[in-house]
Design brief:
39% of the residues lie in helices and 22% in strands. It has 264 residues and is of the alpha/beta class. The chain has one domain: P-loop containing nucleotide triphosphate hydrolases (Rossmann fold). The strands form 2 sheets. A 6-stranded mixed beta sheet has the order 6-7-8-3-9-10, with helices on both faces. A 4-stranded antiparallel beta sheet has the order 2-1-4-5. A hairpin with a 2-residue loop joins strand 9 (225-230) and strand 10 (233-239). Helix 5 (117-124) runs parallel beside helix 8. The radius of gyration is 18 Å and the shape is globular. The two termini are 29 Å apart. It binds adenosine-5'-triphosphate. This is Branched-chain amino acid transport ATP-binding protein LivF. GO terms for molecular function: ATP binding; ATP hydrolysis activity; branched-chain amino acid transmembrane transporter activity. Keywords: Amino-acid transport, ATP-binding, Nucleotide-binding, Transport.
């Protein structure tokens, strides 16, 4: 079979723009990169509707993490736009986005190892310290471990527990949107399941979620919608179940390995 190029099975930018109308977060034609003259994202389109959990999957180096960083103002957007509730937030710095209700959990180095769990969560609240107790109670409901072990230094925790601290810290500011960069990376299968369950719970608590994931099949199982990114462009977007069962997506991105990992 001839490999379809992304353009052959992508929604056109016009179709995508129509679908994106009224979205909570929206990226249109985003071009971004790290090195001058080298674009990693090449006219990338994205949207997240209020209440959705949306997964971004695709091969290594496709630009998934770069898309999250460009939404969160961590790398400048060279062309195109990013909006939040219709407001232009293109290349706005991360601390401004946090105040506007966007939380971000990076893939690595996402906790302060020498600080306790409680102190890590306090760092998440530096903009609104008076609300700490109130927010800690809410976040503690989602992650009881953070309360039980609040005096333990984050450096002494397992990878899965650190991930909970990182997510908990981002949730302390009561975000309406949470960006998660490969939350299951490096975790044992048991902890991976735990992380996906937590993501679903966070979403059920009213937070819209954008999740980049290597574990594509598991991600699509819990997502309302997914994007397949390839070479800095959207190759495909559809509901999680539709993507999971699409023969082209299976052949190109999910593959036999992911197929063998399929869960009931
Ligand atoms: N800080 C950086 N400086 C220069 N190039 C970078 C930087 N970070 C990422 N890149 C490059 O950008 C491209 C996309 O990387 P990105 O991390 O967005 O990919 P990804 O789809 O998230 O894949 P992976 O799962 O492998 O991280 C890669 O070619 C990568 O080498």
């Amino acid at each position: 079979m001839t490999e379809p190029t992304p353009a052959e099975f992508a929604a056109t930018p016009e179709e995508h723009a129509r679908l994106a109308e009224g979205a909570l977060v929206r990226a249109d034609g985003v071009v971004a990169g790290y090195i001058p003259g080298v674009n990693i994202l090449r006219e990338c389109n994205f949207f997240l509707r209020e209440g959705e959990i949306v997964g971004i999957i695709g091969p290594n180096g496709a630009g998934k993490s770069t898309l999250l960083k460009s939404l969160f103002g961590l790398i400048p957007v060279r062309e195109g736009s990013v909006t939040l509730r219709g407001e232009d937030i293109t290349s706005k710095p991360a601390h401004v986005l946090v105040q506007k209700g966007v939380g971000y959990v990076p893939q690595t180095q996402n906790v302060f190892p020498s600080l306790t769990i409680e102190e890590n969560l306090e760092m998440g609240m530096y903009l609104r310290p008076k609300l700490f107790a109130e927010r800690f109670a809410v976040v503690g409901d989602l992650f009881p471990l953070l309360v039980e072990r609040k005096k333990v230094k984050a450096g002494a925790l397992s990878g899965g527990e650190r991930q909970m601290v990182a997510m908990g810290r981002a949730l302390m500011m009561d975000p309406s949107v949470l960006l998660l960069d490969e939350p299951s990376a490096g975790l044992s299968p048991m902890f991976q399941d735990e992380v996906f369950i937590r993501c679903k719970r966070i979403n059920a608590a009213g937070v819209s979620v954008i999740m980049v994931e290597q574990n594509a099949r598991r991600c699509l199982q819990i997502c309302d919608r997914g994007y397949v990114l390839d070479q800095g462009r959207n190759a495909y977007t559809d509901s999680g179940p539709n993507l999971m069962h699409d023969p082209k997506v299976i052949e190109l991105y999910l593959g036999t390995l992911a197929g063998s990992q399929e869960k009931k």
